[in-house]
Amino acid sequence: MKDRVPLPVRSLLRETGQLADRRRVRVYATGGFVRDLLIGIPNLDLDLAVEGNGIRFAKALAQRYQARVTTHDRFGTATVTLADGPTFDVATARTESYDSPAALPTVRRSSIEEDLRRRDFTINTLAIRLNTPHFGELVDHHGGRRDLKDKAIRVLHGLSFIDDPTRVFRAIRLEQRLGFQLDRNTAVLMKEAVNMKICHRLSPSRLSAEFLHVLSEREPVKTLARLADFNLLPLIHPQLKWSPGLARLLNAVEKAIQWHAGLSLGPLASPWVVYGMACMEALPQPAVQETLARLTLPGRQTQSMLWVAQEGARLLRTLNRTVKPSETFRALCTLPEETLIFLMATTRSKQTKQKITDMVTTYRKVKPVLTGHDLQTMGLEPGPLYNRLLKRLFDARLNGEVETKADECRLVNRLAKRR
Ligand code: ATP
């Protein structure tokens, strides 16, 4: 930990261990944090497992740091968000048993050993002790360290994918994200589970969550390609198939997102939506509607995806025809950033690409110098006219028809006289 965890986080973990000492519970860092720590990937999403009451411990932790805490009583878990630090996901160490395949498990409080045994892959079964005398000691009951070294994704038992088919998606995401490989037996088990159509039993909301995770990966294109290798794309819609066209579009989306990042306009709120739009583009209209109605993806983004599927092509034709910047602005001004990026990825027209670039980089910053207050000083009576004048001034600015405040005053006087 010494070399790989930034000092403030290390101190935080040490203090967490000391708090656990005082409260007479045992606490461990687990999951993705430990896995990524050992392979040198920065990850400040801290997963803690508590042998004892996790929620009570999370509350004490939140009180200690005056942090926000959200509890999920049913699962015995809580999230503690520090004002300017990492987030702790605190869980009560637990065992899970599955009454039927793909159902949510029955949960019971347990020891860390049992908690680690219910995990998906060996590389996620590592834990680090945080209590004082043992601070920093690695707990490795399932060969997690060996598999990290061998870059292998391995399930803990033969029924793992049957118990919880979301692990199929998790395996593919981890494999692609970390550049690991499925261990041979795990790959066989996964293929068997897929052939048994076990993933079809997932509820739409669990499937949606997995699809969202895939689209939110840093490199979703290769993750989607791998889903296609396992014939999992039809779970999203039976007509969704991998094709050279879809691959080209997804790569174009990736490039367009990189282009946007290079403009330093601030991080994109939901890059995943742009990849989602590309997947929907591979489907006929009715299938898009069916898919988006069935999946439970966030509402605003679902609307954007639906809009693009229905109106995107028409909008690109309109953009082809716009001449003045103000026309381009009006065509694009209500669209979210993600939609603009998708249009950038789909169009082949250089002019249209330039228009979208101008919109994103320039047009939105344009502002007339004159304000409503100035119009009043110029002796114009307040009313609906103001809106029209200000809009006209804005268009004139965009189109380069006015450059100075004096130009704007002249334009206002001319328009006001014409009334
Ligand atoms: P990510 O970096 O994608 O967030 P993570 O490994 O931190 O990956 P989480 O979804 O935060 O994943 O889950 C935390 C831990 O809980 C995982 O490391 C894993 O050990 C365990 N876990 C999560 N989902 C499952 C599952 N479906 N079955 C078994 N264990 C799971």
Put the structure in a nutshell.
With 419 residues, the protein is an alpha+beta fold. Helix content is 54%, strand content 11%. It folds into three domains: 7-150, Beta Polymerase, domain 2 (2-Layer Sandwich), CATH 3.30.460; 236-363, cca-adding enzyme, domain 2; 372-417, no CATH class.
Overview of this protein structure:
- This protein starts with 6 loop residues before the first helix and ends with a helix.
- The relative contact order is 0.06.
- The chain has three domains: 7-150, Beta Polymerase, domain 2, CATH 3.30.460; 236-363, cca-adding enzyme, domain 2 (Orthogonal Bundle); 372-417, no CATH class.
- It is globular, with a radius of gyration of 27 Å.
- A seven-stranded mixed β-sheet has the order 3-4-5-2-1-8-9. The chain has a two-stranded antiparallel sheet with strand order 6-7.
- The protein has 20 helices and eleven strands.
- With 419 residues, the chain is an alpha+beta fold.
- Helix 12 (271-281) crosses helix 16 and helix 13 (285-294) packs antiparallel against helix 14.
- The protein has helices at 7-22, 31-39, 54-64, 112-117, 144-150, 160-163, 166-178, 184-195, 204-215, 220-229, 244-262, 271-281, 285-294, 299-321, 325-332, 337-346, 350-361, 372-377, 384-398, 405-418, and strands at 26-30, 45-51, 68-72, 77-81, 87-92, 94-97, 106-109, 127-129, 138-139, 152-153, 181-182.
